[in-house]
């Protein structure tokens, strides 16, 4: 696996400082599990010590709680072993070209991925929401056929995309297994899956706060508030 697209310094710092919420942390930790180069950068930043960390804006209480939860899940997660996958893991292997899903993603999705319930988005695309306690961001797997555009695309907030299988192009840039893409509302993009096979990605996006408030407005008359 040759990884060409890495985490930004800013995101690694946020992760090291514990100010990333649970959903973002899943993607960052999963890339770190796949990427020795980013692990080295993380260690370098951690070694830089308290002076550096003190410059990071303090996380709010909810993020602290998410971080504690994340650490607890990481501690509980089974260790990844180099042994061949058991038959129950066949779907994992299929979905990642023989590689096992990286921790901590694997512990969120369970050891038996035969039970994964992909939901159709139409047009040969599927998604699988990953249950977290994170209310500020959502995590999901996307599975998209060759030559298809990545659906459910928002330009309204921050976005992290980690490729778990296959590859896609975003303009002139190609993202392959292990690559991570960071985008915000300033980035105009239209990812298209490459023609040589389907693509499975982990996608983290800001929660649709505007939509939620719209729903609240919609039901307000019925609730009498
Ligand atoms: Zn990296």
TrEMBL record:
Protein name as catalogued: Transcriptional regulator
Domain ChrR-like cupin: 113-200
InterPro entries: Anti-sigma_ChrR, Anti_sigma_zinc_sf, ChrR-like_cupin_dom, RmlC-like_jellyroll, RmlC_Cupin_sf
CDD domains for this protein: cupin_ChrR (cd20301)
Organism of this sequence: Rhizobium halophytocola
Lineage of origin: Bacteria, Pseudomonadati, Pseudomonadota, Alphaproteobacteria, Hyphomicrobiales
């Amino acid at each position: 696996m040759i990884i060409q697209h890495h985490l930004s310094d800013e995101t690694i710092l946020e992760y090291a400082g514990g100010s990333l919420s649970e959903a973002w942390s899943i993607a960052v930790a999963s890339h770190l599990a796949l990427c020795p180069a980013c692990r080295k950068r993380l260690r370098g930043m951690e070694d830089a010590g308290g002076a550096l960390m003190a410059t990071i804006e303090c996380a709010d209480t909810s993020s602290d709680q998410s971080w504690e939860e994340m650490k607890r899940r990481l501690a509980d997660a089974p260790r990844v072993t180099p042994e061949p996958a058991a038959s129950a893991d066949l779907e994992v292997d299929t979905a990642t070209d023989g590689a096992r899903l990286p921790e901590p993603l694997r512990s969120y999705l369970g050891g038996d991925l035969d039970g994964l319930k992909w939901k159709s988005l139409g047009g040969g695309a599927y998604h699988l929401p990953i249950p977290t306690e994170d209310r500020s961001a959502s995590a999901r797997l996307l599975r998209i056929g060759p030559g298809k555009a990545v659906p459910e695309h928002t330009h309204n907030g921050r976005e992290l995309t980690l490729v778990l299988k296959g590859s896609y192009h975003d303009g002139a840039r190609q993202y392959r297994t292990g690559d991570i893409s960071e985008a915000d509302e300033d980035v105009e993009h239209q990812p298209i899956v490459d023609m040589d096979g389907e693509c499975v990605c982990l996608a983290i996006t800001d929660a649709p706060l505007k939509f939620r408030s719209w729903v609240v407005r919609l039901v307000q008359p019925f609730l009498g508030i």
